[in-house]
Amino acid sequence: MEDPFAESNALLGDIVINYRTIMSFGEYNINTIMTTYENMIIGADKAKVRNSIISGIAYGYSQGI
């Protein structure tokens, strides 16, 4: 199964490794990068919650039978 946080982890790793370069981009570009990262995290988190709900319903159904 593919890790939903793989893309956001890769972005965060690049930010940490290239810290000085990122800081030289300026405040507007840094805010854009951080907004992109936040959107990646929110999307991955929503997918995890959806999968958890589906698993819970399936488990409850199997226990009910």
Name the helicity range. Answer: over 70%
Rg over C-alpha atoms, rounded to the nearest angstrom: 18 Å
Q: Which residues form runs of ≥5 with pLDDT under 50?
A: none
- Give a quick account of the main beta sheet: strands, pairing sense, barrel closure: none
Order of helices and strands: HHH
Tally of individual domains: 1
- Name the beta content range: under 5%
Describe the secondary-structure layout.
Elements: H1 6-17, H2 19-24, H3 27-64
Describe the structure.
The protein is mainly α. The protein contains 3 helices and no strands. The protein has helices at about 5-15, 20-25, 25-65.
Task: Describe the structure using short key phrases.
65 residues, mainly alpha, 3 helices
